[in-house]
């Protein structure tokens, strides 16, 4: 006769388990499920597994998004305080948005204008009074250090925001395709947290999946994501490095502003010609010091690694796995196979999820990463990473310098 055992899957009392031979829940001797039950287990798995597998990845993305908002606030403040017209601020904001998305529409003239306007805006706030065109011309050489610091600060913000865009593309790519049928079958056989073949045991014999089995199943399910995980880690490391660089440049801007402010006050006391033109600069009300931004990141390299790590997923998402007295696909006992490395070679040997993983092409994202990495290195070496797009017709830099010097000489 057939012995019926009633089990539940996610409180689905409609599933009735019958011991008999079948295609998925293959056991030694008697099997656990009839074909209809197998299909229900498989369909339940398909509706749940993908969300569970990418749960940690999405939590990591939320951490990235939180810091991205902080960096966007820094950029917005820099634009608002620069001495530009409102129309020009909006135009520059659009160009910075394009840069974040991977298209540089900034010309050399744009960058020269922004550098000067940002430095002038910082001095204006520090003095508590607007800096006129004439005074800016007289301070041309004195403002160079602040201009350079502002450009490095701006460049660091934009490159870091670009990094977050690339990471977002990787997260999207990771979830762009469904997991394979073999992955879902492996999850049912392995009896992962939401149910599977181990539901066919008597309630008194029910046991959690074996930890090693869980790891092999999930790494097999994610074999198409090996490169994605690798580049998420690369990006996380570079973003952490870039955050430290940005903090240094933010401090450099503050120091350069203080030094320029002290130079202005000195000129007002000692230089009669400067005083005659710029005496209004001493009548400002100096503001209270703004609270500084926090440069504490809500993530680290380990968070990036854990996003698609089978060991962490089995412990964090599919909790309840154990090493012994566990479900090993056919009975309660111990899973004796090796844990296969999360590499292409390792997953070719993994028997739990045979076949190829999802084919996820991230070649364009890798190209974007390589370009981003060059800019991170430039900033780490103290160089300005922002450059005008060569495809845009711009005023030659030597002409901009000539015009600036002419203004300075006329004013003096």
Strand order of the largest sheet: 1-2
Q: Identify low-pLDDT runs.
A: 1-22, 27-31, 392-412
List the helices and strands in order. EEHHHHHHHHHHHHEEHHH
Structural class: mainly alpha
Outline type: elongated
Q: Biggest sheet, open or closed, and with what strands and sense? A: 2 strands, antiparallel
Distance between the termini: 108 Å
* Proportion of helical residues: 55-70%
Number of helices: 15
- Strand % is under 5%
**Average residue pLDDT:** 84
Rg over alpha carbons: 31 Å
Number of strands: 4
Explain this structure to me?
The longest helix is centred in the middle third of the chain and has 45 residues, at 226-270. The chain is mainly alpha-helical. Helices cover 59% and strands 3% of the residues. The model is unreliable at 1-22, 27-31 and 392-412 (pLDDT under 50). The protein is elongated. It has helices at 35-53, 55-81, 86-101, 108-127, 133-138, 144-174, 181-190, 211-221, 226-270, 272-278, 301-306, 310-316, 344-348, 363-380, 397-411, and strands at 4-6, 16-18, 324-327, 332-334. The strands form two sheets. Strands 1-2 form a two-stranded antiparallel sheet.
Please describe the structure with a list of short key phrases separated by commas or semicolons:
about 400 residues; two-stranded antiparallel sheet; mainly alpha; about 5% strand
């Amino acid at each position: 006769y057939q012995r019926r055992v009633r089990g539940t899957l996610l409180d689905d009392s409609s599933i009735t388990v019958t011991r008999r031979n079948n295609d998925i829940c293959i056991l030694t001797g008697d099997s656990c499920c009839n074909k209809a039950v197998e299909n229900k287990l498989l369909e339940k798995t398909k509706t749940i597994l993908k969300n569970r597998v990418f749960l940690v990845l999405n939590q990591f993305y939320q951490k990235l998004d939180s810091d991205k908002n902080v960096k966007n606030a820094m950029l917005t403040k820099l634009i608002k305080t620069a001495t530009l017209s409102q129309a020009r601020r909006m135009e520059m904001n659009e160009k910075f948005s394009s840069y974040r998305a991977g298209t540089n529409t900034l010309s050399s003239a744009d960058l020269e204008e922004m550098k000067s306007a940002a430095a002038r805006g910082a001095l204006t706030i520090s003095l508590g009074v607007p800096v006129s065109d004439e005074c800016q011309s007289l301070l041309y050489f004195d403002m160079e250090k602040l201009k350079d610091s502002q450009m490095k600060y701006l460049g660091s913000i934009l490159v870091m925001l670009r990094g977050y865009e690339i990471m977002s593309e990787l997260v999207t790519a990771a979830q762009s395709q469904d997991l394979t049928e073999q992955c879902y079958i492996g999850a049912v056989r392995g009896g992962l947290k939401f149910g599977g073949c181990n539901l066919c045991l008597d309630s008194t014999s029910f046991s959690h999946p074996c930890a090693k089995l869980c790891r092999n199943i999930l790494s097999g399910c994610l074999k198409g994501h090996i490169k994605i995980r690798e580049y998420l880690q690369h990006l996380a490391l570079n973003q952490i490095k870039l955050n430290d660089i940005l903090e240094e440049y933010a401090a450099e801007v503050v120091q350069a502003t203080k030094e320029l402010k002290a130079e202005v006050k000195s000129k007002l006391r000692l230089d009669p010609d400067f005083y005659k033109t710029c005496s209004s600069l001493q009548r400002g009300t100096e503001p209270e010091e703004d609270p500084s931004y926090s440069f504490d990141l809500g993530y680290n390299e380990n968070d990036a690694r854990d996003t698609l790590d089978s060991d962490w997923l089995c412990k964090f998402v599919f909790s309840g796995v154990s090493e012994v007295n566990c479900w090993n696909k056919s009975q309660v006992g111990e899973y004796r196979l090796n844990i296969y490395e999360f590499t292409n070679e390792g997953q070719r040997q993994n028997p739990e999820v045979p076949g190829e993983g999802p084919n996820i092409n991230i070649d364009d994202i890798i190209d974007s990463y390589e370009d981003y990495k060059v800019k991170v290195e430039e900033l780490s070496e103290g160089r300005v990473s922002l450059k005008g797009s060569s495809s845009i017709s711009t005023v030659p830099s030597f002409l901009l310098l000539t015009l600036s010097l002419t203004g300075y000489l006329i004013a003096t």
